[in-house]
Amino acid sequence: MTAAAKTPATMPYDVHAVRADFPILSRQVHGRPLVYLDSAASAQKPRHVIDTMTEVMTAEYANVHRGVHWLSAAATRRFEEARTKVARFLNAAEDREIVFTRNATEAVNLVASSWGRANLREGDEVVISWLEHHANIVPWQMLRAEKGIVLKVVPVDDRGALVMEEYERLLASPRVRLVAMTAMSNALGTITPIAEVIELAHARGIPVLVDGCQAVTHLGVDVRALDCDFLVLSGHKLYGPTGVGVLYGKAELLSQMPPYQGGGDMIARVTFEETTFKDIPQRFEAGTPAIVEVIGLGAAIDYVSGLGLDRIRAHEQDVFDYASRRLQELNSVRVVGTAPERAGILSFTMEDVHPHDLATILDRSGVAVRAGHHCAQPLMDRFGVPATARASFGLYSTREEVDALVAGLERVREIFG
Amino acid sequence: MSDELRDLYQEVILDHGRHPRNHRHPEDPTHHARGDNPMCGDRVEVFLTLRDGVIADAAFEGRGCAISVASASMMTELVAGKTPEAAEALFRGFQALCTGADHTHLPDVDASDMERLEVMSGVRQFPMRVKCATLAWHTLSAAMAGADRASSETDGGKS
């Protein structure tokens, strides 16, 4: 696959060899080497993903699940192989528990629309947390408008850690029907005690949907060990292409759920009087799927697995710890979110400088950070800031890039005085 | 530091950003509107007191980046004493200035006002920041039109 991949677990992590696998990392921005610290928004793509997608379109592309012809069979095989790769990556019990969606947002909407409409009625409660991305807030609010469900929100403390006593208190209500919670905050990097969250919910017979967008990338997720009922993830944050996300659902739950969208590929038989639907997962995959992107996601998983999630995590932790130390040295910088369990993401503000201005100045030194509310406005309100700057790391990030960030921040200070 | 950054963050802008003028909530404004920049979550609220057909007082409240606060601050100074039509004309001139379009031949735009706004023209080199500069003006325009909401989304770009 590449020089960097398929290395034994004992080998030291050669981040420079890894970086050579990502063509975009060698480009310049504003005449400076690119320092990409926005992987939490979207990760860059390794050559293996790019090449695989090109190769599919060049040699093995046709529509899937349809034609009798050779190409369609070849494309279908590769498409379904990708499903197997995702299932193994998450340690799902069966391939049919993997539903391909457009993105993680669509996966949450699928559960809200299908499972939610079928199972929730007025007064039923869905428990989320202050750490949620808008994608795990708004679909439930839409369901609230439609069905009159009640949203309960688990607070976070001043460090950005989940207040578990409050969670237990909310769970005690007999009306709770679902917990929908992130395993890792995209805005603060907080790792939530998701295993405990699930255990407590299950003790009361309440199913749990996990937003795994950040966790699958930075920590790795084993859905059977966690015993989560649903998990959503985004392909493009996992070094795969955009346009593909995943809903994992336990087969017994998915099997009972009505279709989400109607159309081709999800039907067993259609007459004008009646339509019968296919079994899972195709029941939830109406229309031609993102064939090339799904196969690209499979390639991304191969790449990540080849490097080894444990080694990636150790490397990212080193860069994260180094960045935390370096930012602490800057007097005017305040890190937002200081929970003891964090990874991969550092949110911060600088005294008297709006994050937007900070990001513009950093950008001119080639340093790409996100400035804004990170699709988590309630959380920003909780910390009394309209926005933060966010540096997020990936398997290709280096200490040198952290140094470039710090140098950029010193330049911001020069301009703003 | 790049010259483009120097052009963007001129001392005048930093000063207006740090010490915004007319940053207050008047008691009885005749017109007001709220503006949102969905991209960064920034907000501005513009309050106008129209008397005898002119803007007797313009003020704003809000939070935002140096560019958006400086722009709002300068705006409140410039539109005071103007008719809504003249303020609207100046808004058009300012939009042209921010996007690099020709603004020298626009009708009804006061040349000396444009000269004062010229300090904001560095934003041209930063297309992602044009919305920051124009948010307050969009909100002013909405307030004068009797709308209560404005969004910076109309200036193109993506959130």
Question: Quick gist of this model?
Answer:
Chain A has 417 residues and is of the alpha/beta class.
Structure description:
The mean pLDDT of chain A is 95. In chain A, a hairpin with a 4-residue loop joins strand 11 and strand 12. Chain A has 417 residues and is α/β, with parallel strands linked by helices. Chain A contains 15 helices and 17 strands. The longest helix of chain A has 21 residues, at 70-90. In chain A, helix 12 runs parallel beside helix 15. Chain A has a 7-stranded mixed sheet, with helices on both faces. The relative contact order of chain A is 0.17. Chain B is of the alpha+beta class. Chain B has a single domain (3-148), classed as Sufe protein. Chain: A (Alpha-Beta Complex), CATH 3.90.1010. Helix content of chain B is 42%, strand content 19%. Chain B contains 6 helices and 4 strands; from the N terminus they run H-H-E-E-E-H-H-H-H-E. A 4-stranded mixed sheet of chain B has the order 3-2-1-4. In chain B, a hairpin with a 2-residue loop joins strand 2 and strand 3 (54-63). In chain B, helix 3 packs parallel to helix 6 and helix 4 packs antiparallel against helix 6 (130-144). The longest helix of chain B has 16 residues, at 84-99. The mean pLDDT of chain B is 89. The interface between A and B is medium-sized, with 22 and 22 residues.
CATH topology-level fold name of chain B: Sufe protein. Chain: A
Largest sheet of chain A: 7 strands, mixed
Fraction of residues in β-strands of chain B:
15-25%
Global Rg of chain B: 14 Å
Distance linking N and C termini of chain B: 27 Å
Shape of chain A: globular
How much of the sequence lies in strands of chain A comes to: 15-25%
Top CATH class of chain B? Alpha Beta
Order of strands across the widest beta sheet of chain B?
A: 3-2-1-4
- Number of DSSP E strands of chain A: 17
Instruction: Give the total of beta strands of chain B.
Output: 4
**DSSP summary: helix tally of chain A:** 15
The pLDDT mean of chain A sits at: 95
Low-confidence parts of chain A lasting 5 or more residues at pLDDT below 50?
none
